[in-house]
Design a protein that fits this description.
alpha/beta; 2 domains; 5-stranded parallel beta sheet; 7-stranded parallel beta sheet; 329 residues; Rossmann fold; binds glyoxylic acid
Length: 329
């Protein structure tokens, strides 16, 4: 590949992705943990052929207007709601993502959220540190069982399936709802396909694994929360927009449901005055489902492979608008 390609990396990037990009192209790199400021990014993409970016940067029409040479945005995430894919496709810009490599880490975090909220782990930590523990008591921090509970998985893709596999270890009964039935999953997990109202009313844990799209926006709102059992928990490690966050805060405050474990919010970061921050019965994480050392490395590698493949006229391993790839070849 010609090193005359210019690649912009607007936020810290793990290896090997960073080294791979640097070996193949001229790189403008923002090494901070926070993203390159917008004005600077708009200037940096002026002669960029490729961008290797985390979801913290937004790629909309305004940015694309500043990037006339751009051929690829390699997002370092499986989600790509930070990218205007329609606008990219119109301009022949490939949009790539990193499916698969973060499945295990995200499924692990989902189980961690479920356990944390039903066994009141964070509350217990706060209580112990605050010096509130004077004697053993049978009423202290009593929660609910995960083992043998009913799990409702909404979205049976890669991550939903891995959550289901882990849930089998807890002898959970598994219900799922998906755009289409998955007979393979039904056989493997013994999972039962149900409609959304049934899933909501029968599950002890409802976990979301759908992408952010106009169709999934506020998939869980006041009416859906109303259908859940008062002893049930909601877990969201997918995207914040899938849940009506105000309705969720109200349901949690009024104990309409028992609790929630959330890794994602709308907007992100969560607003300083968001009522969720005042509630004890939810565990909140700052969008870190894929944040393990190994997963970050694998994501960087796959994103760099996507980027370099497009720049060298090859088919990238994971492209969300493959229709642009054959144009002009
Ligand atoms: C993280 O949120 C991702 O979409 O990979």
């Amino acid at each position: 590949m010609t090193p005359t390609f210019h690649v912009v990396i607007p936020q810290f990037l793990h290896d090997p992705g960073l080294t791979m990009a640097r070996e193949a192209a001229r790189v403008t790199y923002w090494p901070e943990d926070s993203p390159m400021p917008r004005e600077r990014l708009l200037a940096a993409v002026n002669d960029a052929d490729g961008i290797l970016s985390h979801p913290a940067s937004r790629f909309d029409r305004e940015l694309l207007n500043h990037a006339p040479r751009l051929k690829v945005i390699a997002n370092i995430a499986v989600g790509y709601d930070n990218v205007d894919v329609v606008a990219c496709t119109e301009r022949g810009i490939a949009v790539c993502n990193t499916p698969g490599v973060l499945t295990d880490a995200t499924a692990d975090e989902t189980l961690a959220l479920m356990l944390a909220v039903c066994r009141r782990i964070v509350e217990g930590d706060r209580f112990t540190r605050a010096g509130g523990w004077r004697y053993w008591t049978p009423l202290l921090l009593v929660g609910q069982d995960l083992t043998e509970a009913t799990l409702g998985i909404i979205g049976m893709g890669r991550i939903g399936l891995e959550v289901g596999r882990r849930a089998r270890g807890f002898r959970m009964r598994i219900l799922y709802h998906n755009r289409h039935r998955r007979p393979d999953v039904e056989t493997e997990l013994g999972a039962t396909y149900v409609d959304l109202p049934t899933l909501l009313s029968e599950s002890d844990f409802v976990t979301l694994h759908v992408p952010a799209t106009p169709e999934t926006r506020h998939l869980i709102g006041a009416a859906e929360l109303e259908r859940m059992k008062p002893t049930a928990y909601l877990v969201n490690a997918a995207r914040g927009s899938v849940v009506d966050q105000r309705a969720l805060a109200t349901a949690l405050r009024d104990r309409r449901i028992a609790g929630a474990g959330l890794d994602v919010f709308d907007p992100e970061p969560i607003a300083a005055d968001d009522p969720l921050l005042q509630l004890e019965n939810c565990v909140l994480m700052p969008h870190v489902g894929a944040a393990t050392q190994r997963t970050r490395q694998r994501m960087s590698e796959l994103a760099a492979r996507n980027l370099l493949a497009v720049l060298s006229g090859q088919t990238p391993p994971a492209c969300v608008n493959p229709e642009v790839l054959n144009r002009g070849r």
